[in-house]
Design brief:
Number of strands: 0
Order of helices and strands: HHHHHHHH
Structural class: mainly alpha
Number of domains: 2
CATH class of the largest domain: Mainly Alpha
Largest sheet: none
Helix content: over 70%
Number of helices: 8
Distance between the termini: 63 Å
CATH topology of the largest domain: Tetracycline Repressor, domain 2
Oligomer: single chain
Radius of gyration: 19 Å
Shape: elongated
Length: 188
C-alpha cells in the first residue's frame, strides 16, 4: 500500500467516523462543514470524497451494512442455544440501529434497503434453518418467514429503545423471549 493510499484511507475513515458520530448525536441538522471540522479536514477535502450529503449518507449506510454483516459472523451464534443466539443477535442489531438510526431512515438510502436484506438476510436464514432442522424452532414456519418476523421485532424494538430510552440489553432479552417462546403465558 502506497503512502497516498494510506493517507486516503485514513482520511476516509476519519470522515466516516465523524459523520456517523455527529449524525447519531445531532441528527439531520449536522452540516457538511460540521462534519469536515470534526474529521479534521477542510470542506474541499470532504467534498472531494463526497460531492453531496446524499453520497456521504449512502456510504454510511453501506458501512453500516458491512459492519453489521461482519458482526453477525463474529457472534458465532451456531454454538449457542437458540434463545441465547437470538438475544445476542438482537442486541447487536439494536446497537447498530442506535449508532446508525438517522442514516438508516434517511431518504437517500430508500432504494438501498434491499442491500441489508440481501447481505444479512441469508445469514439469518441459515441460522434459523439450522435451528428448524435441530428441532429448536418450529418446522411449520419456514426460515424465510422467521427472518421477516425477526426483522420486524428488531425494527420495533429499535424504535422502542430510541423513543423511550429503554435498556438495549433488557429489550434484547424481551425480543428473544417473544421470538422463541411467544407472548402467551406459560400456563396457556
Amino acid at each position: 500500500m502506497g503512502a497516498n493510499t494510506a493517507v486516503r484511507d485514513r482520511t476516509l475513515a476519519a470522515i466516516l467516523a465523524a459523520a456517523s458520530r455527529m449524525i447519531a448525536e445531532r441528527g439531520q441538522s449536522v452540516s457538511m462543514h460540521d462534519i469536515a471540522e470534526s474529521a479534521g479536514v477542510g470542506r474541499a477535502t470532504l467534498y472531494r470524497y463526497f460531492p453531496t450529503r446524499e453520497a456521504l449518507i449512502v456510504q454510511l449506510f453501506e458501512t453500516a451494512v458491512d459492519e453489521a454483516s461482519r458482526a453477525v459472523d463474529s457472534l458465532e451464534l451456531g454454538n449457542l442455544p437458540v434463545h441465547r443466539a437470538v438475544e445476542r443477535l438482537t442486541l447487536e442489531m439494536l446497537s447498530f440501529a442506535d449508532a446508525y438510526r438517522t442514516v438508516l431512515m434517511d431518504e437517500a438510502v430508500e432504494g438501498l434497503r434491499h442491500r441489508a436484506k440481501d447481505v444479512i438476510g441469508p445469514k439469518l436464514q441459515g441460522l434459523f434453518s439450522e435451528r428448524i432442522e435441530s428441532g429448536e424452532l418450529r418446522s411449520e414456519i419456514d426460515a424465510v418467514h422467521l427472518v421477516r418476523y425477526f426483522g420486524g421485532l428488531v425494527r420495533m424494538a429499535a424504535f422502542m429503545v430510541a423513543d423511550s430510552g429503554r435498556d438495549r440489553v433488557k429489550v434484547s432479552a424481551e425480543v428473544a423471549d417473544l421470538f422463541c417462546n411467544g407472548a402467551a403465558t406459560r400456563q396457556s
